[in-house]
C-alpha cells in the first residue's frame, strides 16, 4: 500500500492567523496519526509564514510515524533538518516569495550542489528525496546525485485530470518506470485530491508515498478530518 503523509502547513496557517496556539499543531498531527495516516509532512519557509522552525523541533518529539520535512536547502533549512533529523527530507527549489511549490529541480544544472547536500543529509541518517518534473533526463540526473527517492510534481496531472484529460497520467507512469529502473523510490505530491488520487495510484507503479495537504485539509472542512484521512487510505490500497 502507498503511504499517506499529511502536510499540516494549512493547520499552521490557521493557527498563525489569530496568534496563540489554536488549533494546536501538535494535537492535530497526533490526531492525524491516530486516524491512520502513515506520516506527517511540513514545509517550513524562511519567513515562517505557516510552519515555524520551532514547530519542526516540537513535532520531532511527538510524531510517531514517518516525519518528512520539505524545503529549499538554504543554510537555515539545512541546519534545522540536521538538528531535527526527520525520517526524510524532500528538497524543493522554492523561491523565497513563492506561494507554493511551482517547479521541480533542474538536476542537471544543480547536480553538484544536490550531491553535496544529499551526502550531508545521508551521512546523518536522513532519507533524501528530490522534488522533480517528469523529464527523463532530469530523472536520470537525479539518480546520479545519490538521492534515495524522487517526488513527482503532480500539478500538471491534477490540472489536466480536472479537465477530463486522463492521458495526462502517461508522463508520470513513464517517469515512475524509469525511476524504479534507476533504483529510485517514488513519492508524489501537489494538488492530489480525493477526486484524482485513486486514478493516480492505479497508474503509477511502485508508488511509495504521497504527500497531501491543501486538498486534504480543505476536504476535511466538509467531511471531517478523520473521515478524509480514511478515504485517502482506502483509495491508496
UniProtKB/TrEMBL annotation:
3-amino-2-oxopropyl phosphate binds at residues 7, 18, 191, 213-214. GO terms for biological process: pyridoxine biosynthetic process. GO terms for cellular component: cytosol. It is found in: Cytoplasm. GO terms for molecular function: pyridoxine 5'-phosphate synthase activity. The record marks 151 as: Transition state stabilizer. The active site is at residues 43, 70, 190. Its EC number is 2.6.99.2. It catalyses: 3-amino-2-oxopropyl phosphate + 1-deoxy-D-xylulose 5-phosphate = pyridoxine 5'-phosphate + phosphate + 2 H2O + H(+). It is an enzyme of class 2 (transferase). Keywords: Cytoplasm, Pyridoxine biosynthesis, Transferase. It comes from the Bacteria. InterPro entries: Aldolase_TIM (IPR013785), PyrdxlP_synth_PdxJ (IPR004569), Pyridoxine-5'_phos_synth (IPR036130). Pathway: Cofactor biosynthesis; pyridoxine 5'-phosphate biosynthesis; pyridoxine 5'-phosphate from D-erythrose 4-phosphate: step 5/5. Gene3D superfamilies: Aldolase class I (3.20.20.70). Belongs to the PNP synthase family. Catalyzes the complicated ring closure reaction between the two acyclic compounds 1-deoxy-D-xylulose-5-phosphate (DXP) and 3-amino-2-oxopropyl phosphate (1-amino-acetone-3-phosphate or AAP) to form pyridoxine 5'-phosphate (PNP) and inorganic phosphate. This is Pyridoxine 5'-phosphate synthase. It comes from Polaribacter filamentus. The lineage of its organism: Bacteria, Pseudomonadati, Bacteroidota, Flavobacteriia, Flavobacteriales.
